[in-house]
Structure prediction request, 142 residues.
Amino acid sequence: MLEDLRVNDRLTIPAAELAWRFSRAGGPGGQGVNTTDSRVELSWDLTGSTVLPPMLKERAVARLGHRLVHGVLTITASEFRSQLRNREAAAERLAGLVASAIAPPPRARRATRPTKGSVERRIADKKRRGETKRNRRSYPSD
Prediction:
């Protein structure tokens, strides 16, 4: 399963930059859980990678900084019983994480003023609500 990891149309992480580790996982699996190394750790050295241009690398480091340990991004998958499915899950998760980290920032919101009609409706609703509450009051009898 040493194949390149496709992140998006323009970016593919070569298999040589990915490091896989396997260990025993807890959870479902019966007796086999004690003998098979189904838990998968997929690591990628983000800061040392040659795949990303400097601008995208800076953006990814800024967005994933809390997940990086010495510049290395590690994904763990142990939700499936088989190592193969956990490998696929870890690769998919890494690709999604990197894709969202290098995505361009969203456009800044342009501030707009509320329309005259929306202001009038809001004030009319407030008056109606105040009238409803005013009608609930009990007045002391004279």
In short: The beta strands are 5-6, 12-13, 18-23, 39-45, 68-69, 72-77. The chain has a mean pLDDT of 88. The two ends are 89 Å apart (CA to CA).
